[in-house]
């Protein structure tokens, strides 16, 4: 598969990505555990069918020490016993925050309350920003058909 556009060669994308990457770094530096951030990024990317981001976040998470078992079960996290209650709350928030059209009301009060049991206000802000950022990145990659498989851990950090 060939990409429709070379996003990394575009001056417009370069200018915009500078700001997006700064926002992404702010989220990465939050107190939300790095493993949770990667699991959320992976799940959002799976839902959106973004192969580039699935490739990237699977490899980054594995490189950071995440186990193959936990990575392989992200798509079926509800039935899996390998995630903490906090991780499960973050994954549920990520799913409802990504499937806004399917949820018809966005994120439910129950899902928000479960997330708020495990994360303080600043962490919730970081999770919401991370979910939004991942949805943006996924859509850019899906629309332009960016191919996956060549990512090297840490390539964009």
From TrEMBL:
One Pfam assignment: CMD
Lineage of producing organism: Bacteria, Bacillati, Actinomycetota, Actinomycetes, Kitasatosporales
Record-linked PANTHER family: 4-CARBOXYMUCONOLACTONE DECARBOXYLASE FAMILY PROTEIN (AFU_ORTHOLOGUE AFUA_6G11590) (PTHR34846), BLL7811 PROTEIN (PTHR34846:SF7)
InterPro entries assigned to the protein according to its UniProt record, in alphabetical order: AhpD-like (IPR029032), AhpD_core (IPR004675), CMD-like (IPR003779)
Domain Carboxymuconolactone decarboxylase-like: 12-96
SUPFAM superfamilies noted in UniProt: AhpD-like
Domain of life, source organism: Bacteria
NCBIfam families the UniProt entry points to: ahpD_dom (TIGR00778)
Name recorded for this polypeptide: Carboxymuconolactone decarboxylase family protein
């Amino acid at each position: 598969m060939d990409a429709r556009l070379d996003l990394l060669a575009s001056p417009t994308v370069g200018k915009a990505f500078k700001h997006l990457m700064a926002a992404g770094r702010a989220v990465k530096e939050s107190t939300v555990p790095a493993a949770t951030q990667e699991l959320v990024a992976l799940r959002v990317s799976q839902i959106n069918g973004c192969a580039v981001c699935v490739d990237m976040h699977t490899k980054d998470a594995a490189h950071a020490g995440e186990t193959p078992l936990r990575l392989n079960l992200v798509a079926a996290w509800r039935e899996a016993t390998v995630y903490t209650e906090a991780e499960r709350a973050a994954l549920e928030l990520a799913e409802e925050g990504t499937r806004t059209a399917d949820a018809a009301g966005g994120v439910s009060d129950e899902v928000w309350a479960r997330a708020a049991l495990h994360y303080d206000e600043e962490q919730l802000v970081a999770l919401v920003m991370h979910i939004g950022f991942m949805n943006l990145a996924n859509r850019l990659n899906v629309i332009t058909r960016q191919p996956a498989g060549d990512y090297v851990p840490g390539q964009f950090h």
